[in-house]
Amino acid sequence: MSPTSRTKPDPDHAPPADTRSFAEQWSGISKYLADVFAKPDPQLATLMSRAIAEGIPDIAVSPETGRFLSLLARMAGGLGGGGGARMIVEVGTLAGYSTIWLSRGLAPGGRIVTLELNPKHADFAQREFARAGIAARVQIRRGPALESLTTMARTMPPASVDMVFLDCVKTEYPEYFRIVRPMIRAGGLLVADNILSSGTWRIDDGPGTSPDRDAVDEFNHLVAADPAFESIGVPIGNGILVARRLGA
């Protein structure tokens, strides 16, 4: 059949136009991903309900993002199928939801250092870590993230971290990257949440519409242009950046 002889679509029998908004469509897709790939256990399924009841904001990563983090943490121990990450640094604990997902990708004897400014959030997360049986594997460092990261960069051996997960103050993302960059070992991963949106902005809103949006855009370009990393943005949740440190 020649291109000119193909049957043209019949407008009288065309499928109805999808009148749902982008947010409605994406909500349905996210629900599908969570239902299929990210069924949480009873603790994780109820953790944010308990957090919200104590006044903690409902801004944790989505279940499908949590599953993705767990898989990345397992891969960070060796992208050829290693036994999981030995050292993870998480910037932004909140209620500990993402920390528990990350812990499931740790190698035996591996640990997580998670940074949290708000004492109420840190106290709640500590209780959840005990409930999950991972308290011995997680250290909460309390205080401003930039101060804690600067101290860690000064006291930890360089290239000693398998995975860094950023989910904290968006305007500080570029500075987080500059600090953690030398901490990540060759083959290790840098992962960041909210690289496409949050509750108040979207990356396509354009420059100058939000300080958070502009800082995240700067961060995305910094990582993408860095020759020491290969990186990609993944459109699940509010957008996840995954970057692998190159080298032997």
Short description:
The chain has helices spanning 22-37, 42-53, 63-76, 97-103, 119-132, 145-155, 173-180, 211-225; strands at 85-91, 106-116, 138-142, 161-166, 184-193, 229-234, 240-245. The protein is 39% helix and 21% strand.
**Assembly of the depicted chains:** single chain
Structural class: alpha/beta
Find the count of extended strands (DSSP E, 2+ residues).
Answer: 7
> Spans with pLDDT under 50 lasting ≥5 residues?
none
Name the CATH superfamily classification: Vaccinia Virus protein VP39
Strand content: 15-25%
Indicate the CATH class: Alpha Beta
Question: What is the domain total for the residues?
Answer: 1
Major sheet attributes: 7 strands, mixed
Blueprint of the fold:
Elements lengths: L21 H16 L4 H12 L9 H14 L8 E7 L5 H7 L2 E11 L2 H14 L5 E5 L2 H11 L5 E6 L6 H8 L3 E10 L17 H15 L3 E6 L5 E6 L3
Parallel strand pairs: 1-2, 1-4, 2-3, 4-5
Antiparallel strand pairs: 5-7, 6-7
Helix pairs in contact: 3-4, 6-7, 7-8
Description of the molecule:
By secondary structure, the chain is α/β, with parallel strands linked by helices. The protein has one domain (21-245): Vaccinia Virus protein VP39 (Rossmann fold, 3-Layer(aba) Sandwich), CATH 3.40.50.150. The chain has helices at 22-37, 42-53, 63-76, 97-103, 119-132, 145-155, 173-180, 211-225, and strands at residues 85-91, 106-116, 138-142, 161-166, 184-193, 229-234, 240-245. Strands 3-2-1-4-5-7-6 form a seven-stranded mixed β-sheet, with helices on both faces. α3 runs parallel beside α4, α6 (145-155) runs parallel beside α7 and α7 (173-180) packs parallel to α8. The protein is globular, with a radius of gyration of 20 Å. 39% of the residues are buried. The model has no long low-confidence stretch (mean pLDDT 89).
